[in-house]
């Protein structure tokens, strides 16, 4: 794989505040929606009472241990670390006039620590959480008022960190609100489709306003969106299957279309009409949406299939989406279908569609790791998964796709989003903590740690094409 990756390729890893930081009420932080989901985004929404505890309350204690963790990332040669700011650390209830200084100071310390090693931050403004206060008082993104609260938050952090953070993302996996409305837009899980799309509309306007604010406030700053890259293939070549696949892919590409092109795509008119959805979209909203992102970012873990044949329509839960399994692919221990070639296909599809630089900001294998008696962890399966995906990234670059970087998901073990498990591990670095919260939180290098270090040091030249 010689010479395929550009010299300035941003190699690194990605985490999210609510899955690593812990310290869930420290230094004035308010409750976030994630704190109400102790069992993960598919668990019940649990109002918190004094004495309640959840695994994310401590997570991997990144809030206190970040200097050690950043040093380990630096040892692997990271050029970039993606994390998020917990909105409720900055505006604990969401609607305050002034930010919480202690929350701001934490991220100053974190970014300064990264700067010591030349690691560039890539910062998500909202990764599966918002201040819980905004859902209680305003109904989350169901309310137009939330646009203004988000804009205030975005402007606050752009102004504060404009010399430290040059790469930003607005909403993590913005398309997932269709499947997990509380996590995505702070609405009850049983909300109807019209209410969800109205909340999504508010979020899209807020995203565009953040793009504008970033362009105004951050010198040389670049801001992208973030899509769950849930690519689907037709299970057969029946024309009906192909058409249905196009329709289902548009469910998520719609978000990218608005964010990258600056207006609702034509195909949504029919969709809204046939589903009896009438959105309130003002002239000012349309104007705001015209401010488009600088690059497209996305997560990629798996692909799935679509069929119109009822007899074959058995779905497997794949992260947030339900997908028909592809008979040509194997699955991870969690049933996610492994498809490295799909990543090359997706990169080409997104580049053809948007002609904007792409950033793969999540990709990885969740697996159960075993610590041997001598303390070593041989995660060859993870190396194979990542190698095979990166080989396809190199191929896509060779196809002419502009790829800015690659941040693998969970370079250090963290709490999984879907079910709040520690045992679903993605890391190059092992964290001694189990699903019940027992363990010393000690960090250990896995075999993949040394492998990823070599990949970065060789700028991808040591990757091995299959067979
Ligand atoms: C993405 C999310 O959907 O998938 C991450 O952006 C999440 O927050 C990742 O952790 C993997 O999912 P899970 O459920 O295995 O943690």
TrEMBL record:
GO terms for cellular component: cytosol. Its EC number is 3.2.1.86. It comes from the Bacteria. It is an enzyme of class 3 (hydrolase). The keyword Iron does not apply. Keywords: Glycosidase, Hydrolase. GO terms for biological process: carbohydrate catabolic process. This is Aryl-phospho-beta-D-glucosidase BglH.
